[in-house]
Amino acid sequence: MISRHIFMVYMMAAVFGLAGCVEDGERGATGATGPQGETGTRGEDGQDLLNSTIKLSHIGRYHSGQYLESAAEVIAHHAESNIIYAVNALSGKVNLIDISVPTSPNTGAEATSTINLAADVLADQTNLVDSADKLGAANSVAIHGDIVAIALESKPKQDPGFVVIYSVTNGVPAYQRAIKVGAQPDSLAISLDGNYVVVANEGEPSQDYTNDPEGSINVIDISGGIASAKNTIINFSAYNDIEVTSGAGETAVTTITAAEALLDSKSRVGARAQRIFGGDGQIAKDIEPEFVAIHPDSKEAYIMLQENNAYATVSLSAEPKLESVKGFGFKDHMVKGNELDFINDDKIMLGNVPLLGVYMPDGADTFTDRRGLTFLVTANEGDSRVYPDCASFGYPTASDTPKDGDDECLDSSGNEIKDGDIYTDELRIKDADDVIFSTAALGGIFADQNDMENKEHPMTLRSFKIIKDMGIEATQAGTPCTSVMEAEPKEDCTYTQMYSMGGRSFSIWNAVTGTLVFDSGNDFEEITANILGPTGFNWDKEQHVAAFSRSKSFSGDGTFSEDRSTKKGPEPKAIEIATVGSNTYAFISLEATGGVMVYDVTTPEFSKFVQYINPRDFTRDANTVDGLAAVGDLGPEDIKFISASESPNSLPMIAVGNEVSGTISLFNISIINQ
Questions:
Q1: Same domain, 456 and 600
Q2: Residue 5, Cβ neighbours under 10 Å: how many?
Q3: What domain count does the chain have?
Q4: Partners of 93 in the β-ladder
Q5: Within 13 A of 436's CA, how many CA atoms are on the CB side?
Q6: In which residue ranges of the chain is pLDDT below 50?
Q7: Which residue range is the domain that position 611 belongs to?
Q8: 268 by DSSP, 3-state: which?
Q9: What is the tens place of the pLDDT at every residue in 96-139?
Q10: Is 134 exposed, middle or buried (0-12, 13-18, 19+ CB in 10 A)?
Q11: Are residues 122 and 163 in the same domain?
Q12: Are residues 435 and 308 located together in one domain of the fold?
């Protein structure tokens, strides 16, 4: 690839010409003026070659008044009524926020500003469900024209969920029907032509890991009307019957054969020996569809399989089908430009260390550039699997003082249990007591394993979390090395490579081939370091809510610090692609650190940073509810673009839904020239 600087030299040569080597001779006498030629035809208008760019300005914020309740996690905009529909996840409702005056977003009376999904589904005469107790969280919302589709999981969420569809008339949503889909519908999108609702059913296991449904995808064809919608479910069961087991009893070893070809080497299918992650080893249960992005031509959908580091391509037609599963591959943090901060020490130090980042994108979007090429754009968050996760599983133990980040809770029988006691795929390097790290794994940075774990080593990885079941080999062939049901790898096993969760970046991929076209490298950490400094750099999204543990009674001291460097860094979460003026831009939210990154992706290969804006106050002591309200936006989870033609103030804008703080922020977009 031609470097940017060399490319510019070539362009200057083409525009201005380069001096030749032939000397000029003597100039002759000026000849007579010739006759006037015919007027030529007018050429096509050229493109403005000025680098137009944009600037975001924060103009308004809606406060739900709910913190740590996922009260504004996913959002969608209904243009005609200037209403934002916000998923209030835990309540199982959707709130309607009026942004007609974008500087003062607000809701009206409860009866007119809230969709009660459970009440509407229960009132349906199709006998879909017989009790509100069997309906769980609302997870996603999408709008096309006057059609609103909402993803609603069941209780328990391992049961089949629903897509609940409404139509809007004069700004008022009216229930149409509920359609049963797979377990835990987590994300949905409506195609640009309005014909298809595509649903990613994550199918996570229960917290005690006794119930693990298959992940799946639903394609709901509404081209013939909602009443006659055609519902197709696509699963991954074809991947299951491809295991080969040798031996018996304690020496039995299960290896994956065809799966490695179907889920290519750029994917992640878990431990190659003994089990696939957990449960009964079925790959279809291991696959967890996370997010839906649809091709601009509405003929294909791309579904992120986050924990599998892959994406599924599904055709959208009268007979939808799974076309392929492609892996994203890995990011080499030893390469210049891919440095990361890997120590929680309240200092900023980005360096190259021997880690391969597993992209594991969450949010994604698509766009077609001026050449007619289509690209898939991803926010490379990363994700681990930890069961139980005490924040969602139980309550603080009676004997301990509850605190933010408490990793102990009570199970359904009242027994004390800790995060990951049942199942975990992450490992802090200092806890790898019996395993060996090879010379290759140490990457020439460390003399030996002790050197890597030395607190005094400037590049120590002692506290860094790696993926436990990747890059590990048995010293004796046929010996299982890891089980996600055990805290540590077995003895006599060697890490030949260390894998980290996420890419700490956003990436642009050729949507057809899956080829990486652009990655933002270490930009996010460099930019946040320069703008925020140590106060705010790689802070967690919940550091301002230390006062509100699950018991809502703990009072912290208001002192916070760097917390994410040993894990996933700033955590790119959501991404939205939009055209403003003549250029195409990517808006990427950082879930942990907060704020929105803006990049010009008009020419994908040469994407460039434009702006970082973060309406979070890192200096506030958040020991009261009022304090929490003052810190701004925490945990930006979703971004939606609102064009100038659909905006209440006739300026393009973005809306950002913030999971932790329960807020929605509005930003105007101004076009400027450099």
A1: no
A2: 7
A3: 3
A4: 88, 116
A5: 11
A6: 1-28, 36-37, 39-50, 243-261, 271-279, 398, 401-405, 545-559, 623, 625
A7: 337-381+502-674
A8: coil
A9: 999 999 999 998 766 679 999 999 999 997 788 889 999 999 99
A10: middle
A11: yes
A12: no
